[in-house]
Design goal:
The protein has 110 residues and is of the alpha/beta class. It has helices at residues 16-22, 68-78, and strands at 9-13, 28-30, 44-49, 52-58, 84-87. It has one domain (4-87). It is 16% helix and 23% strand. The longest helix is centred in the middle third of the chain and has 11 residues, at 68-78. This is Chromosome 1, complete genome.
């Protein structure tokens, strides 16, 4: 199992489709955490992207009204060394001048 203290980046997805896509980004996947905070009901994927150990979570469909803030709070309680967080998602419009768009090239054999 993975040590929660080893993770420094948090990534929160708003919907399941984004969460499924996010699971393709880690360069290597890690086992689930050894433990999480008592009231943490988030679902996590752990892995490494570049040199960063990353925790990926999603707002669960069955918890209506759960906010990004509560997901982030629970994530930070369970993974106390997170230093930065990202909310990454899909959009239905063309990017504006303040949006950051990143594309990952498709890798053969993955």
């Amino acid at each position: 199992m993975s040590d929660p203290n080893d993770y420094t980046a948090g990534w929160i997805c708003a919907i399941t489709m984004e969460y499924v896509a996010a699971q393709e980004f880690p360069d290597e996947e890690h086992e689930g955490p050894e433990f999480v905070s008592l009231n943490d009901n988030n679902h996590y994927i752990l892995g490494k992207v570049g040199k960063h150990n990353v925790v990926i979570a999603v707002l669960t469909d069955n918890e209506h009204g759960k906010s990004f803030a509560s997901v982030a709070r629970d994530m930070m309680h369970s993974f106390p060394n997170i230093r930065f967080g990202l909310m990454v998602g899909i959009v239905g419009r063309a990017p504006g001048k303040h949006d950051v768009c990143i594309e990952r090239p498709q890798q053969v054999g993955r």
